[in-house]
Amino acid sequence: MRHVDTQPDWDKIAEKFDLWLPYLAPVGEALLDALEARRGEVILDVAAGTGEPALSLVRRLRGNLVVEGVDAANGMVKVAQAKAKQEGWTNLRFSCMPAERLDFPAHHFDRAMCRFGVMLFDHPQKGLEEILRVLKPGGRLVSAVWGPPASMTTLYWAHLAFRDRLPEDKQPPLVKATSLGAPGILQGLLETAGFTRCIVQYFDFHYRFSSFAEYWRLVETSGIMKMQFDALTPALLTVVREEIAGYAQAHMHEEQLIIPHQAVLATAYKPV
Ligand SMILES: C[S@@+](CC[C@H](N)C(=O)[O-])C[C@H]1O[C@@H](n2cnc3c(N)ncnc32)[C@H](O)[C@@H]1O
């Protein structure tokens, strides 16, 4: 598989991305547990998307800390800003900013986090070096990336179903999304960027649906596969749906569709 970046257009799907948040929540909770943020601290959330896990962190500490969320897609940032405003958090800010060029002074943050962002950066190592720069000495980074290709089950199904039906530049972004999932890759990248005391572990969690139809509705309405869907005729799309329904069948348990996924969670520190 060659490396072609066919990420969703985050600006265009921003309004609907929230449909996925309940399914990603276990990873956010695990990251916040590992972050161990304290009252009064200043925290950075990189690739904060529509506001998670930054919003959950501010709720956990009832607003007694400062959180800066940044994301490269302005559409995602606007959704996050609206939520912060609606909930009345004045010390939670979201800005449009690529990880590779963080507009913050060095040694500014006590801790940083990034859920499902690093592997999508244009330059993952440069982004990590920037996070290192803006952390205080001894500051902690917690990060989640997707595991190996077959463990990002739903995207893997899409990869299997689309691989012989679409050109390379329209394939689902499995390669990039799982590019840091193999053992040792994330740890190596963190260490090369200058982090120390890296602890990396695999984290299993599940997407739960009442039926395959409910899962497929989410895929359709969230627009996450828009590029792929738009490139197929309705007849071929029906074939793809049936193929993916076949893969899902093995995960039906007593009228529930329970789809396993795996993330890689890393904790690392800026040297003192
Ligand atoms: C899968 S979403 C995750 C969003 C959020 N962290 C969450 O877990 O709900 C990936 C996000 O990474 C952002 N992203 C991709 N490349 C980026 C970069 N170089 N710098 C900052 N954000 C980036 C995208 O705009 C998108 O919002």
Concise description?
This protein has 272 residues and is α/β, with parallel strands linked by helices. The protein has helices at 10-17, 21-35, 54-60, 74-87, 124-134, 153-162, 174-177, 185-193, 212-222, 226-230, 234-249; strands at 42-46, 66-71, 92-96, 109-115, 135-146, 196-209, 252-253, 256-269.
Structural overview:
- By secondary structure, the protein is α/β, with parallel strands linked by helices.
- The chain has a domain at 10-148 and 172-206 and 262-269: Rossmann fold (3-Layer(aba) Sandwich).
- 40% of the residues lie in helices and 24% in strands.
- It contains 11 helices and 8 strands.
- It has helices spanning 10-17, 21-35, 54-60, 74-87, 124-134, 153-162, 174-177, 185-193, 212-222, 226-230, 234-249, and strands spanning 42-46, 66-71, 92-96, 109-115, 135-146, 196-209, 252-253, 256-269.
- Strands 1, 2, 3, 4, 5, 6, 7 and 8 form an 8-stranded mixed beta sheet that branches.
- The longest helix has 16 residues, at 234-249.
- The mean pLDDT is 96.
- The structure holds S-adenosylmethionine.
- S-adenosylmethionine (SAM) binds at residues 10, 24, 47-49, 52, 71-73, 76, 98-100, 115-117, 120-122, 127.
Task: Give the SSE layout.
Elements: H1 10-17, H2 21-35, E1 42-46, H3 54-60, E2 66-71, H4 74-87, E3 92-96, E4 109-115, H5 124-134, E5 135-146, H6 153-162, H7 174-177, H8 185-193, E6 196-209, H9 212-222, H10 226-230, H11 234-249, E7 252-253, E8 256-269
Parallel strand pairs: 1-2, 1-4, 2-3, 4-5
Antiparallel strand pairs: 5-8, 6-8, 7-8
Helix pairs in contact: 1-4, 5-8, 6-11
Bound molecules: S-adenosylmethionine.
